[in-house]
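Good morning C.,

I know you're traveling, so I'll keep this short. The sequence:
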Amino acid sequence: MFRYVHYEVICALLAVCATVVSAGVVFGVEGAPETPGGVGRAIVLGLIHLVLVAGFGVLTVSRVKWFGEGRDFDKAAPLRDPASVLPTRGEGYRNCVNALLFVSLAACAVGAGLLWERDLALFPLVFAPVWLARGWWVARWERRHGLLLWTGRVRTQPLQDDQRLYSSVRQSAGSARDV
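The tokens, ready to paste straight into the viewer:
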């Protein structure tokens, strides 16, 4: 079991790490790519890309019919016994690290960067804003509804056909004023 938000954020971090690895390998072998329009133009295009792709990420977790996953959040099955099923804090983070995703992103980017075009070494970076925007939107949903969304399997509590997630009540952390 792992939190839905944690998985999205970890995937974004894996995409950034895969970009660092692939860019280091490709640019070390082939040299850094030139920007004919200047660095300023590349930065502006990168920011425009960031906004567009993050908007797409938010759409994928919205309530838009046939496109967004937002309806799945409302249908999340409440956990009957959260204490016996949910992972500890460190274990939850380890469970959501997708090593296969990292290896796939890095290998594809290195291969494409070496075989076709150096700029393709930066390709995994395309996915990071999508996953970060999804994580932000789901965290926002969790705060509004007072629930935490979980992904995984609970043998004692199988999901129904139209359910993909579990939920548990969000415990308030308290503040410094409560002391």
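Safe travels,
E.
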